């Protein structure tokens, strides 16, 4: 984006009362005691290929991936993996609850009390956007605080209540794993070199992994979607699914626990010779009505709508698309879609 358009860019909205420390942005560690494939001081994470995702089983690896970069979601919660939850001491919690207890929250508190000691409190992170949170503070601020220990996606009040009710049975529940999208898994393998993906117990090299993801991805659009994902991750954004807002991705500064997502991103593949037309197998054209509706959704949620055009060069053959080489050959064009409000954008001379 041009420097003279910097005033059009949105300022990331910070979340209030963020009390847990910031971790490293990527899950790269040097572990002298861990053996690896090539470097004895390099920490490798093992993932297992499934039909539509890559699964990580080890609890320590799950914590590492989720707290350092916010990669993946829990297989059971679909948000924050349970291994990322923790308890912290809060000696004043029960006394404060007695003073501020209200009938509307008494049943919830009683359920939580059955599963906690008198001086402990469940911590779960708030890692997803809640558009209501941006305009006003939560009305139930005097209830039990539910915050993540390290990071994660936001949880609704019903889900929080369910945590309290089911906490006593958590030990008998099925073990939760971390689910990575193909784009997340390949970025960890190709971009960072900290993930080894196995298929039926056999490690996969980067070329074989690329071809496998291309084969399994919906519409075989993995090269386009990964190029977009890699682009934003390399610019420092934390990239998460934008399905909730009808887009491909949402972008966070630093991470979901610290900021609300700033932009919703729609990825649009096009041909180089005809920038306005989507090439075969890509997404259909936007109509003005659909674009206006999408912009209204993102605007009401306090975000900006960003269109990312992934331009396929004419000289890029299908053989080159079958390798990671094509990532450097695609051209990217960012377009920030913004509603024009005459009363806010007219020149001062026109207003006078």
How would you portray this structure in words?
A 6-stranded mixed sheet has the order 3-6-2-1-7-8, with helices on one face. Strands 9-10-11-12-13 form a 5-stranded mixed sheet. Helix 6 (182-191) packs antiparallel against helix 7 (206-216) and helix 6 (182-191) packs across helix 8 (222-234). The protein is built from 12 helices and 13 strands. The chain is globular and about 60 Å long. Among the domains are: 20-32 and 40-85 and 175-216, MutS, DNA mismatch repair protein, domain I (3-Layer(aba) Sandwich), CATH 3.40.1170; 220-351, Trna Endonuclease, Chain: A, domain 1. It is an alpha+beta fold. The protein has helices at residues 59-67, 93-100, 103-114, 131-135, 157-166, 182-191, 206-216, 222-234, 288-300, 318-321, 342-345, 348-351, and strands at residues 45-49, 54-56, 73-74, 86-89, 120-123, 178-180, 195-199, 202-203, 237-241, 249-253, 263-271, 304-312, 331-337. One of its GO terms (cellular component) is cytoplasm. One of its GO terms (molecular function) is tRNA-intron lyase activity. Keywords: Endonuclease, Hydrolase, Lyase, Nuclease, tRNA processing. Residues 91-174 are annotated as: Disordered. Residues 222-310 form the tRNA intron endonuclease catalytic domain.
């Amino acid at each position: 984006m041009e420097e003279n358009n910097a005033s059009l860019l949105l300022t990331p909205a910070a979340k209030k009362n963020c009390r847990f420390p910031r971790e490293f942005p990527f899950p790269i560690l040097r572990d002298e005691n861990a053996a690896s494939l090539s470097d004895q001081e390099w920490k490798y994470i093992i993932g297992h290929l499934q039909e539509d995702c890559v699964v990580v089983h080890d609890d320590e690896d799950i914590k590492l991936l989720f707290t350092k970069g916010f990669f993946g979601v829990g297989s059971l919660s679909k948000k924050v993996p349970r291994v990322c939850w923790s308890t912290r001491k809060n000696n004043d919690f029960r006394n404060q609850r007695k003073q501020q207890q209200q009938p509307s929250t008494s049943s919830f508190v009683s359920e939580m009390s059955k599963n906690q000691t008198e001086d402990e409190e469940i911590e779960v992170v708030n890692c997803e956007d809640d558009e209501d949170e941006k305009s006003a503070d939560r009305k139930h601020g005097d209830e039990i605080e539910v915050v993540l220990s390290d990071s994660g996606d936001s949880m609704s009040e019903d889900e929080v209540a369910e945590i309290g009710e089911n906490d006593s049975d958590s030990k008998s529940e099925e073990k939760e794993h971390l689910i990575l999208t193909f784009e997340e898994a390949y970025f960890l393998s190709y971009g960072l070199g900290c993930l080894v993906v196995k298929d039926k117990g056999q490690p996969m090299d980067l070329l074989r992994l690329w071809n496998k993801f291309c084969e399994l991805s919906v519409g075989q659009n993995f090269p386009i979607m990964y190029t977009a994902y890699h682009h934003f991750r390399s610019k420092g954004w934390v990239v998460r699914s934008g399905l909730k807002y009808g887009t491909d991705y949402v972008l966070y500064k630093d991470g979901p626990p610290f900021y609300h997502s700033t932009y919703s991103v729609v990825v649009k593949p096009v041909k180089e010779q005809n920038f306005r037309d989507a090439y075969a197998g890509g997404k259909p054209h936007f109509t003005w009505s659909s674009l206006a509706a999408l912009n209204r959704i993102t605007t009401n949620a306090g975000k900006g709508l960003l269109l990312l055009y992934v331009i396929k060069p004419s000289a890029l053959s299908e053989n080159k698309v079958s390798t990671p080489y094509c990532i450097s050959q695609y051209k990217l064009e960012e377009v920030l879609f913004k509603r024009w409000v005459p009363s806010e954008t007219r020149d001062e001379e026109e207003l006078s």
